[in-house]
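A quick word before the example. In earlier lectures we treated sequence and structure as two separate objects. From today on, think of them as two lines of the same record. Here is microsomal epoxide hydrolase written that way.
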Amino acid sequence: MSNKQTKQANKKDNKKKESDKKKQTSMTFSLGKIFTIFAVLGIVASYYVYKVLTTTPELPNIDMNEYWGPYPMDLKQDLSIRSYKIEFSDVIVNDLRERLLHRRPFPPPLEDAGFTYGFNSNFLTRVLDYWQNSYNFKDREQFFNKYNHFKTNIQGLDIHFIHVKPNVPNTIVVPLLLLHGWPGSVREFYEIIPKLTTPTPGYNFVFEVIVPSLPGFGFSQASARPGLSPSKIAVILANLMKRIGHEHYYIQGGDFGHTVGSIMATLFPDKVLGFHTNMPTVMFNKMAYLYIFLGSFWPSLIVEPELQYRMYPLSKHIAGLLEESGYLYIQATKPDTVGIALTDSPAGLAAYILEKFSTWTNPDYKKANDGNLLAKYSLTHLLDNVMLYWASNSITTSMRMYAEAFNKKELSLQLAEIPTSVPTWGIKFKHEIAFHPDCILKLKYKNYLQSTVVEDGGHFAAFENPDILANDIFQAVDTFRQFHNQQR
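And the structure line, produced from the sequence above:
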């Protein structure tokens, strides 16, 4: 090869090397640029997620006078507090007995099914026979009226409530608002009321107890139009307490009573002195969901070892919730359809309500042919609660609460993500539908003072365990009072 050819070959090699070097530099630069872009996007996304998770929503505007009654509006509304008596009239009783007498035969339950397919029809026959022939309507009417009942018109609705004022000389009396849920009623509190209004050793106060029927439940009037959600009910009950004469008060609640009570503490922290809940949970809170998810990998990060079984494995508890929440999907979408069936059939109403008193007291009870309903309750007491729904014809209007609570408009308020400074205390019964550890509860309740853990009991705390719940309420309110004294 000549020198000229050699030089040309070397020149080509150099050009090729230079080109390869440029390509490599370009590729390195491109990779670096891509990495930088992804890093920036990751930082931006992380910041966005952080902001979404940690930004506190604003308190919603509150219309304290929003009208829920029928139109035309009465320009001279009666705002007085009127005495009221619960009545099981002959018309109601005779109609009920006729319906029970002429009920159709039920399909027999599957062998060894217990309550796993729903209410066992063999045991339902026993319940209905008792209701028809042995339930003493006049005696129960007197029982219901052992406490003073009242009605007053709030924002266009006649609101029913029980009001018990203790007559205890030389003892401090503090107001306590007791809130029920679904499918409960004011009946749940009958055994606990005397325990709260009677002096208890170790405490220098007793409670003046106010127990309303939530709007649309029992003898409280239902809304004439859509939109009466838990946040709106919170306003009605705040106005009720003001009407009664209480500017400051304590609240206790479970189920929807927990939801409404929590919202009242959020919206009216200057009025609510303390919030006690027997369903201490934080639903619809993004940080709570993140904690729960992370805890599924490292449970010890968020929950005490001895209580991990109440929350994990997550798949087991989610499966249980899905199995038991079919009613919720129906009531949150088409409550009136199933309401028509239950309004027309006392047998259907009893089965629909009492099945919850079995499974929500203890999920293992569904294995028994009688749902173990009589392990914790009597038929008379269970039917008292059903009777309130039947006599007031309120099952449909009560179920509408789910449609109002789980819709886009109500959830967009993000009330579960707005912290409250109101001192809060929870009691955690073993078989409550959902369990949240204290670290999650403190995301919402900034002054969450204590949890009482009970290795028994379920969803209907006041009905099932009035002694335990009453003692815990006294202890909580005593602590709330100390909390406020220390703040001064």
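Notice the following. The chain has two domains: 1-52, 84-487. We will return to this example when we discuss secondary structure assignment.
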